[in-house]
Amino acid sequence: MTAARGWAGLCGAITLIATLAACSGSPEAPEPGPTSAPAAPVASNAALGDAPSAVPGPPRVVTWAYFTSPSGNISCFLDKSGVRCDIARKAWKPPPAPRDCKLDWAAGVSVYQGRKATLTCAGDTLLGGAKEELAYGQSLKAGLFTCTSGRKAMRCEDSESGNGFALASERYELF
Asked: In this predicted model, what pLDDT tens digit does every residue of 95-118 receive, in sequence order?
């Protein structure tokens, strides 16, 4: 047996094993945790600054996820009840804090089920602790909430209400 033929056989066996492993999961019953389903490339949103993907796919379904943008500037927590993202460096200036906010104002944004997106009033932060990075062009979904990482913004939305936000160092948008 030649070396080339041996490598071809080995590569074929690895491909077969990878294919079988990819087909063994059940999308209806993801395991708990932020790495419950295989990552898949998604069609990008032009508003996020990405070119459309050549191989569109669904977001990775999770029960919850604590993740950061590739730049490390944005960290988010996503679960079935909603999503909150905090930002370290921003060039935009938020509106004045509401009178009832006695904590840090506008260090991030959030959207929760049945509510409109809003700037946060919080005494804690999501920055600095996330171990998972959500690559540009990738998406995570928990319940009705999906977050997509883009080169220009992190976009998170409630698919039922359409409420959500885009967060970036240059701007934020609540919708």
From this structure: 999 999 999 999 999 999 999 999
- Residue 89 lies inside a defined structural domain of this protein: yes
The pTM score is 0.70
Contact 84, 110 (CB under 8 A): yes
Confirm whether 101 is domain-assigned. yes
Has residue 158 been placed in a domain? yes
Task: Print the domain residue range for 37.
Answer: 30-174
Q: Which residues contact 17 (CB under 8 A, 6 or more apart)?
A: none
The Cα–Cα gap between 151 and 148 comes to 10
Instruction: Give alpha helix (H) positions in the chain.
Output: 3-23
How far is it, in rounded angstroms, from Cα 91 to Cα 55? 34
Identity of the amino acid at 62: V
Is 8 contained in some domain? no
Q: Which residues of 132-142 are buried (b: 16+ CB within 10 A; e: fewer)?
A: eebebbbbbbb
- Give residue for tokens 């509106």: 95
The answer to whether 95 and 127 are in contact (CB under 8 A) is: no
Total number of domains in the chain: 1
How many angstroms from the chain centroid is the CA of residue 97? 27
